[in-house]
Amino acid sequence: MRRTSFQYGTVALKPRSQGKAVWVYRWREQSPQGSIVRKSAVVGSIEELPTKARALKAAEAFRLLANREKKATVEPIFGELIERYIVEERLHDSKTRSRKIGLLEEDEEFDPERIEASTASSYLSLFKVHIRPRWRETLLSSVRPAVVQEWLRSLDVAQKTKGHVKALMHQLFEKAMLWELVPVGRNPMELVHVKGISKRTKTPVILEEKQCFDLISSLPDPYRTMVTVAICTGLRVSEILALRWSRINFAQQKMLVKVKAVNGRVSRVKTECSEDELPLDSDFAMVLLDWKAKSRATAGDWVFPSPITDRCYHASPIQQDYIRPAGENIGLVGVGWHTFRHTYRAWLDAVGAPIGVQQKLMRHAHPSTTGIYGGSLLMRTKRDANSKVVRMALRHDVKQEQVA
User: Fold this and answer.
1) Is the pTM of this model over 0.85?
2) Among 320, 324, 343, 349, which Cα is nearest to 334's?
3) Cα(26)–Cα(39) distance, integer angstroms
């Protein structure tokens, strides 16, 4: 038998005087005085959960709450832990929330507990595609490290994806200990190793000056100006798409990077270090002013507003339809948004910028992260450095021969 003394509860459809009917989960609890108290919670609307089967599945998180006093004798299955995590972390809410056009993030109440929309979407996808199908009916004690290790090895996905799956399962076990579903101890996922998570499968493309000029020249606006911003600042594409004119100070020659736009959703930047001011070169400022004269004002004060939505562009279609073909036309395969950030880092090396300055311009929390971007330097930079060493060695040899 899988479990004993477990309160399953009931799920029923409850009509509303206004709006859609909702599914309600009902269970019983014992009060401190010893009497039985009936409890209920709304699982979701009939629109969100069109069948009872889906409502029962969504109610698994509430079953953990209903049976929390029986943690000593009842062991939940992994699927219930997943559902409770989704409810507690408000993943569906984070994924679907929207923002008003022109709303400034400073005016919005910041919720540090809320997971980013893109992260929530990624978590829900990993649950649906990988974790839930394999582990949903498994008792928590049966999710053993060795079994998880072999399962991850069998998955036909990239090593980076396996690393994301392992990390999410690690979070689930942390929550299981917090919620006292399992004894507090070492997280079993710490014993699981996924090799090659950070190893690149492809060498990043680094642009030479002429290649960069040819690529930019072949792009139409606004994409030409977007790529120019990427090359001149090293900004991530999400930060470029969320630029506002009010955060570019032409008089003081600086620009503030504060928010990002991912799939049309605007939120705070990646880390605290990413939120910073960058210098605004005078020649680059002229490029932006030229674009400002051509572009139209929008409620959101966007530097690059979509002509269709007046909101931020989506990055993927621009890369697929414009940037990648432009790169192929000049003989480069695999050119994408991150190519320009890698190129910016390589060009900083080429001009001899100290690693500390590079870290600040790239807005990395640690110099080691900046170093990752230096793995593929410009061939000219490597050739010049190598030639200096060769000249030193050959001149030394010549002096020895002359002495002999």
Assistant:
1) no
2) 324
3) 6
Task: Fill in the amino acid letter for 125.
Answer: S
pLDDT of residue 112 exceeding 60: no
Bridge partners for 312 per DSSP? 305
The strand ranges marked E within 96-239 are: none
Closest to 172 measured CA to CA, from 82, 74, 93: 82
* Kind plus residue range of the DSSP H or E element containing 41: strand 36-45
Whether the CB-CB separation of 92 and 125 falls below 8 Å is answered with no
Identify the bridge partners of residue 25 per DSSP, sorted by sequence position.
11, 41
Spatial separation of the C-alpha atoms in residues 330 and 341, rounded to whole Å: 19
Sheet holding 10-14, edge to edge: 10-14, 22-30, 36-45
Residue pair 346/376 in contact (Cβ under 8 Å)? The answer is: yes
Q: Which residues pair with 12 in a beta bridge?
A: 24
Instruction: Decide if pLDDT at 402 tops 90.
Output: no
As a whole number, mean pLDDT of residues 399-404 equals 52
Task: State the DSSP H helix or E strand holding residue 279, giving kind and residue range, or none if neither.
Answer: strand 276-279
Written as six digits, the tokens of 296 are 């139209």
Pair 59, 25: CB distance under 8 Å: yes
According to DSSP, residue 25 is labeled E
* Average of per-residue pLDDT values in the chain: 81
